[in-house]
Amino acid sequence: DEYRDQVVASLGPEYDPSQLRLIRDERTLVSLIRELQNHVTPAQFALLLSRLQDGFVVAPWEDRQPVHRALDRWAPLPYGVYRIGSEEYRVVPHPRLRLEMVDAWPLERVIPWRGGRMLGYKKAGPFQVIIGRRTVEATPYVRSHRDRLYVWVGEVPTGQKFAVDGRLRPESAGADWQIALRLASAETDRPGLSVVITRLVLYYPDRPHQPVQVWVSTGYSYDDTLREDGVRRFHLHRRLVISLDVFDTPVEVGVTVGDETVLHQVLEPEPHYLFSVVNRERVQARGVADLGDREYVLFTRGTSPPQAGPGVSVEPWPEPYGPYTVYRVRWEDADHPFDLRVGAAHWSFQRRREFAVILDSKPALAHLRLKPHQCLRFEDLSLRLYSTFDLTAAALALEVYGEEGLLGRVALSPHVSAAGTAHFFDVDPALWQEVEALTAGQHGRYVLRFCDGEAVLGEQVLSLMPALSLVGWDDVTPHHETEPLEVTLASPDCPIWNPDTRQPETQ
Questions:
Q1: SS3 398
Q2: Lower CB density within 10 Å: C or N end of the chain?
Q3: What single-letter DSSP state applies at residue 310?
Q4: In 10 A of CB 291, how many CB atoms?
Q5: How distant is the alpha carbon of residue 506 from its chain centre?
Q6: What pLDDT shows up at residue 334?
Q7: DSSP code of residue 34
Q8: Residue from 464, 463, 488 nearest 474 by CA
Q9: For the chain, what is the mean pLDDT?
Q10: In angstroms, how far is CA 107 from the centroid of its own chain?
């Protein structure tokens, strides 16, 4: 007690030894270390630099640059320890990965971490990682002026071809899919249901040319084969939309490679289903209406007729669907909330769901302008969402699609917060870091699909453009408007077609 009184009297009550708390949880301790050591990803550090106006930043190789020039001079940002004034920042491949952990990895050996869900690899020289149709360049890791390594860290891509440093990896072997029950038709006298496999990826490198069969217990089957490299991908394939003539017993859906069933799911009939006519997707009980929803189809096995609130009309279809009685449901008056009950099921919408994506981008370069959907880096985009329902209470996710289909799904909810204006929501720029991890900086067209659970709220198309610069541009000397002006375009990221030589060149 006497010692404690002396400490408090000389240093203050915040140093009272009796108030010390031991941290026994490893995850909490690691989080504290990362916070104290300023652990940031390249995207987070680039955002920090873009917000600073003055000062200098010192790179791990002792190069000193003004903060406003560092991003252009050092792109892409290598991993390592940077200094801004008296502060140190450790740029790391992943928020939960420390540089000391990377230092402990042996060279040219794939290292599993986070329970094997992610892999890491480092080498003394540059190397590439192939994921599906994408090629990812390793990022430099600079420990000193003369000590440079190259590092890659990423998730295991289930069902896709996966090669690290020229060697195929077995970790991604397997299968993955997305399957759902949807409305088959609402324009005939007998609406029905269908099983839809929106995405199916297979990768079995040790089974080239093996037969692939997608089968349904109703008797449907679709046959194909694996390619020479053991890959087969299906994305929104029209043959994988299977109509159900009746749905009165469980329906099994499976995928077989060779003699092995690699995917299997049983769809059990439920007492009630409500589907939107607009997108043919199921509306969950106590859900929220989608934008433009005015008409629905109700399937019910109950004996009690559905009860609708004001502004909602219910009309039975002439023909049943197996054991289900079918109703056409119209939301005719949006001034009244949508309310529909049948048995124990209840759907209630206060208003139609309205959702919009609002993107703003920084100007590209002087004398160069991009279209609204184009960007040089995802970090250059500012994302806001407009919604008539509370996005902070929804299970939001972002699906990123490339040319080869779905690249991955990112949890969006942790990045969304309410803005000061009603119905507007801010999105943390850290989201782009996760998008960048999926696209790996590959130029091209991407589709961002915003989802609430399995329901799609909206889509946004983005084009990641290669960097361009003007060589020999003179913005001081005036030019006559009728005289041609010679301009040379150059790009450090990709060749440009030269119409004079009819060859791709760097400028």
A1: strand
A2: N
A3: T
A4: 14
A5: 32
A6: 72
A7: H
A8: 488
A9: 84
A10: 30
2 φ, ψ (degrees, to nearest 5): -65, -40
Long-range (24+ apart) CB contacts under 8 A made by 429-434 are 429/43, 429/47, 429/379, 429/382, 429/383, 430/43, 430/44, 431/383, 431/398, 432/43, 432/378, 432/379, 432/381, 433/41, 433/42, 433/43, 433/44, 433/379, 434/410
Residues β-bridged to residue 451: 397, 456
Per residue in 194-215, pLDDT (tens digit) is 999 988 999 998 899 999 999 9
Do the bridges between strand 338-342 and strand 307-308 make them parallel or antiparallel, or are there none, so unpaired? antiparallel
With 60 as the cut, is the pLDDT of residue 399 above it?
A: yes
More confident residue, 29 or 477: 477
Instruction: State mean pLDDT over 413-441.
Output: 85
The structure tokens listed for 63 are 């190069």
pLDDT, tens digit (0-9, with 9 covering 90-100), for 356-390: 888 887 765 666 777 777 888 888 888 889 887 78
* C-alpha torsion angle, residues 488, 493, 499, 503 (rounded to 10): 130
Q: Global pTM?
A: 0.59
| Percentage with pLDDT > 90 across the chain | 33
How many CB atoms are located within 10 Å of the residue 182 CB?
16
Six token digits for residue 473: 């541009």
Distances (CA, A) of 127 to 116, 209, 365: 22, 29, 30
Residue listed under structure tokens 């630099």: 49
Q: Mean pLDDT throughout 5-17? A: 83
pLDDT of residue 103: 94
Strand residue runs (E) in 85-204: 87-91, 111-113, 118-123, 128-131, 134-137, 139-144, 147-155, 162-164, 167-168, 174-185, 192-203
